[in-house]
Amino acid sequence: MKLLRRPDWALPERAATPEPMFRNRRAFMIGGAATVAGGAYLLGGTDHAARADLAGEAWDPAAPRNPDFTNAGRPITDEATNSTYNNFYEFASHKRIYDKAQALPTEGWTLEITGEVEQPMTLDMDALRKKMPIEERVIRHRCVEAWSMVVPWIGFELAALMKRAAPLSSAKFVEFKSFLKPEIADGQRARYYPWAYTEGLTIEEAANPLTFMVMGAYGKVLPKQFGAPIRLHVPWKYGFKSAKSITTIRFAKERPVSFWEELGPREYGFWANVNPEVRHPRWSQATEEVLGTGERVPTQIYNGYGAQVAHLYSGMSDLGDKLFR
C-alpha cells in the first residue's frame, strides 16, 4: 500500500481555511494600523478596499490543488486585504498601487526563454497554460519588511519549463527580467532605480520543486497588482526575490546582479533566504506581522520550508553574512 507522507509544514486538513471562504469571501476589511520594525503601515484602508474589483476572471477550469500544499500552517490571507496591499515599485513606492497597476497592458504578453539553453523559445500566456502542468498551491510569503501572508497561488513549477528549455551545462544561474514601460508605469520614470526589475537564482534553486511560476490567485487569473500576467514565487526567500510581470527568463553562466542588490548590497543581497537569526541592517527579522490580523509571530528559518531547501546551502557557513551584503 502506498503511503502519502505529508510535508513538515502541512497541518491536518481540518486546520485549513475552508475553500468556500477564500474563494467566495467578499467582506472588506475595516482600516487598521500595524507597526513593523522600520516603519508603520495601514493594513486595511477602506477607501482602497472599497474600490478593489475582486470579481476578476475565474480560472477556468479550476486548477487542481496539489495535496502537498493544501494549507500553510496558518489561515489564507483575506483576498481584499491582499489585493490592496502590494509592493510594486514600477508604479509607486507605497503599498496602495492597486489603481495604478491597472494601466499595465497584459494582452498579447509573451515570455522569452533565452541564454544558455538548447531550446530558446517565446511563449504567450495561452501557450503556457496549455503546455504547463497547472496546479494550485496554498503557500507562505514573507516580506523583508517583516510582514507575511498566505496565498492560494495558481501556476506551475519552474522546473517544468526548464525541462522544455533544456539548460546547457554552462547555465549556472537564472535571471528574471520584468517589463519596462515608463510611459505607463510612473515609478519607472525615476532614474535612480536600475530598471527593468531584475532578479536571479542559482540553477539549483530554480529547479527546486518549491520554485513556482504564478499565473493566478484565489481561483482567478492573476490580478495586475500581484504581478500579472506571470510572476515568480520563491517561498523560502524574502519577497523581493519573487519578480513580478516577467518578460524574460535568461539562463546564464554568470551570476546576475538583482535590482535591490544593485541599489543597496548591504541591505538586499543575492541570497535573501528567510532567516530569523540574521537581522536586516535596520530591523530585526526574528518575528513577522501576519498581514490583516495584527498578530506577530516568530519567523521560521527558510520560512518553514527548510526540509525542502536547506540542502541547497550545505557547507555555506557564511550564508548569513551574505544575506544582506
Can you lay out the helices and strands and say which pair or pack?
Layout: H1 19-24, E1 33-36, E2 39-42, H2 46-51, H3 79-83, H4 98-101, E3 110-115, E4 121-124, H5 125-131, E5 135-142, E6 147-157, H6 158-165, E7 173-178, E8 198-202, H7 203-207, E9 212-217, E10 220-221, E11 231-233, E12 246-252, H8 259-263, E13 287-290, E14 295-298, H9 306-309, H10 319-322
Following the backbone from N to C, one meets helices and strands in this order, namely HEEHHHEEHEEHEEHEEEEHEEHH
**Strand residues, percent:** 15-25%
For the largest beta-sheet, the strand count, sense and barrel status come to: 7 strands, mixed
Question: What gross morphology would you assign?
Answer: globular
Radius of gyration: 19 Å
CATH class: Alpha Beta
* Annotated CATH homologous superfamily: Oxidoreductase, molybdopterin-binding domain
**Tally of distinct domains:** 1
Number of helices, where a helix is a run of at least 4 consecutive DSSP H or I residues: 10
* Low-pLDDT windows of residues: 1-52
What oligomeric state do these chains adopt? single chain
Estimated structural class: alpha+beta
Query: How many distinct beta strands?
Result: 14
* CATH architecture term: Alpha-Beta Complex
Distance between the ends: 49 Å
What level of helicity do the residues show? 10-25%
- Might you state the CATH topology name? Sulfite Oxidase, Chain A, domain 2
